[in-house]
Write a structure and sequence with these properties.
Residues 150-161 have a biased composition (Low complexity). The chain is α+β, with helices and mostly antiparallel strands. 25% of the residues lie in helices and 38% in strands.
Length: 620
């Protein structure tokens, strides 16, 4: 009785919500067709046409020869009125209903219907209906018979039993491809099959260790599906794209899902009142699991181009410059747009080489990426900004972007045209300090009548106290100090030149500085509440820091290589585990329905602490 009442209240709430939503969209004429997306052979179903404007006439249906029309059209009218904040609004809908039965199995298209309203014709949407074969257990006589198997949209029936069979309720984890290249996307789908109404109470997906995951936004809906001869109510409740981060055999573990099946139990009394009032339902708990799946991840082949930075998929590239004419101390912008399908969000930016005399700034990156069942696709736009300090004619070399195409199993390189740039001298007032040092000299002029004579005797210098300065101890000491400062400057300069020549050393030395700058960006994202961007920034910060600190090229940056280099670097097992845990937290953050701000702050502090511990290793 309680369950039946709850279902009735839920139905009424959904109906009222749908009506309220319809009011918002009732500014124009809408004419909509609806029917189940799947039915069972021999099952009756309703085809309805609904219009939201009065005065409808001359309804014309499409060809329905694949179905037997049992009844229709029957017409019903619904009117409603509501007052919100003193404003009155009303809605109207008229529904035309046909009762149909399929003549054969298969997939059928029902074309648009048409209706006439005030001398204007309107067309509805078209429909696709899949007709499934009868459930093979539907005519077995004894045992359970699922409601879906019998053609109903509701729950199955149990003969007084308090258990649900393994073939009546289960979850399947479907992996689209079990043999892929490193960084090649894999679609993983979780789908529930049930003969009963069911709720999932506790959901624990597998830990995708060794993968980066990109979830797909879903709007789960129940539909009928024939699987192994049974007609199940099915729903896809999770899809994700996995990008393997290392080669070899990687196993996706089991998922665990606590389900509650609402099973109608036949009462021995056979009372019709029990059936009508819902007293014959029983909630049965069942733990559902998925089987582990092993993925064979092939390493990327040898012969990587110099411009390869880990991109896998299929891409196009467009490079532009804001102008081929510029002035000194004015910004020059080169924009590179990458478009394609693959791990575009994880791929490192292509390199743009500006002339040596240009002051180069960090690039600005914008992404517009959508993840669907076919993978992650979209655009990544990078703006490279530099300021020329001297006039002249310059050339920005061709920009190259290489990626691995898993379909052809080969590397491909995209190349832009080089950019010619003519730089003219800008206004003097805009000159930078480096340019101002080369200002013109002026003759000294005495103004007014204060003209001084030229002394012909040898000068001598005295300090403010009147002592002779030239040849004194202070004079000699000043020269010695200047000489020492010059020597120290020369030694430091030579040391820096030597260090800068060693690119690996420069990357290692600057790793902490770059990481701290990116941590400030992550902190800003955290304060703004941009959680997904925060996790992406923390992941990139730590991943980039490890690449620079351990001197691992981006193309070879995998968890396995990082683990090996950490051991060589002197990091203990606890530090290595903490670093991997931070990366895992960022990867799986999207699984959590919501993350509290203190959780983000904790992750931020853990990242800063882990980087600090790494830096301490280099100081001892």
């Amino acid at each position: 009785m309680v369950n039946a009442t709850k279902q009735l209240i839920l139905f009424l709430a959904l109906w009222l919500t749908a009506g309220a939503t319809h009011l918002v969209k009732a500014n124009g004429v809408t004419f909509r067709a609806s029917a189940p997306s799947a039915v069972v052979m021999g099952q009756q179903f309703q085809l309805t046409y609904t219009v939201n404007t009065e005065g409808a006439s001359s309804l014309r249906t499409p060809d329905l020869s694949d179905f037997e029309v049992l009844m229709g059209p029957s017409s019903s009218v619904s009117r409603s009125m509501q007052i919100v904040n003193g404003q009155m609004s009303s809605s109207y809908s008229q529904t035309f209903t046909y009762v149909l039965m399929p003549k054969k199995e298969g997939t059928f298209n029902i074309g648009p219907g048409s209706i006439k309203i005030k001398n204007a014709n309107y067309s509805s949407n078209s429909l696709v209906i899949k007709v499934l074969p009868p459930d093979k257990a539907g005519s077995a006589g004894g045992g359970r018979s699922g409601g879906a198997a019998a053609g109903a949209a509701g729950a199955g029936t149990s003969q007084g039993s308090t258990s649900v069979g393994a073939n009546e309720l289960f979850v399947r984890m479907n992996v689209a491809n079990r043999s892929v290249y490193e960084q090649e996307g894999i679609l993983v789908t979780f789908k529930i099959y049930s003969l009963y109404d069911v709720d999932l109470d506790d959901i624990k997906f597998p830990e995708f260790e060794g993968f980066l995951a990109q979830d797909i936004e879903l709007n789960p809906q129940w539909t009928l599906e024939n699987y192994n001869g049974r007609n199940y109510r099915t729903a896809v409740f999770k899809q994700t794209i996995l990008y393997p981060q290392r080669s070899g055999k990687i196993t996706i573990g089991s998922g665990r899902f606590d389900a509650i099946a609402h099973v109608r139990v036949k009462q021995r009394s056979g009372s019709i009142f029990d059936e009508l009032m819902g007293g014959g339902y029983q909630d049965i708990r069942k733990v559902l699991t998925t089987s582990p799946v092993t993925i064979d991840v092939k390493p990327l082949p040898s012969g990587k181009p110099e411009s390869f930075n880990g991109a896998v998929g299929g891409y196009t590239m467009k490079a532009t410059i804001n102008s081929n004419q510029a002035k000194t101390n004015e910004a020059v912008t080169v924009t590179v747009t990458l478009t394609g399908n693959g791990n575009i969000k994880l791929a490192k930016n292509p390199t743009v080489t500006f002339p040596n005399d240009f002051e180069v700034y960090d690039p600005k990156v914008e992404t517009n990426i959508r993840t669907t069942a076919s993978g992650s696709s979209g655009t990544k736009t990078i703006e490279y900004i530099a300021i020329p300090r001297y006039a002249g004619d310059f050339e920005i070399p061709a920009i190259r972007f290489s990626y691995f195409d898993p379909r052809s199993g080969s590397y491909k390189t995209l190349t832009s045209e080089p950019f010619k740039l003519h730089v003219e001298k800008g206004p003097e007032g805009a000159a930078s300090p480096a340019v101002s040092n080369y200002g013109s000299q002026e003759d000294v002029k005495y103004l007014s009548k204060d003209i001084r004579y030229i002394k012909t005797s040898s000068p001598h210098f005295v300090n403010s106290r009147g002592d002779i300065f030239f040849g004194s101890f202070t004079y000699v000491l000043a020269y010695v100090l200047i000489a020492l400062l010059f020597a120290v400057f020369f030694v430091i300069y030579r040391k820096q030149m030597k260090e800068n020549a060693d690119l690996a050393f420069v990357r290692t030395k600057r790793a902490n500085k770059v990481a701290l700058r990116r941590l400030k960006t992550a902190e800003k994202l955290m304060k703004e509440g941009r959680k997904e961007d925060f996790y992406d920034e923390i992941f990139r910060t730590l991943w980039g820091y490890l690449s620079d600190k351990l001197n691992i090229p981006q193309a070879d940056l995998t968890r396995e290589n990082v683990g090996n280099e950490l051991a060589t670097f002197g990091a203990d097992e606890t530090l290595a585990k903490d670093l991997m845990q931070i990366l895992d937290t960022c990867e799986f953050a999207r699984y959590a329905p919501s993350q509290a701000s203190d959780t983000l702050d904790t992750l931020y502090r853990q990242t800063a602490d882990a980087i600090g511990r790494m830096e301490n290793l280099t100081k001892h």
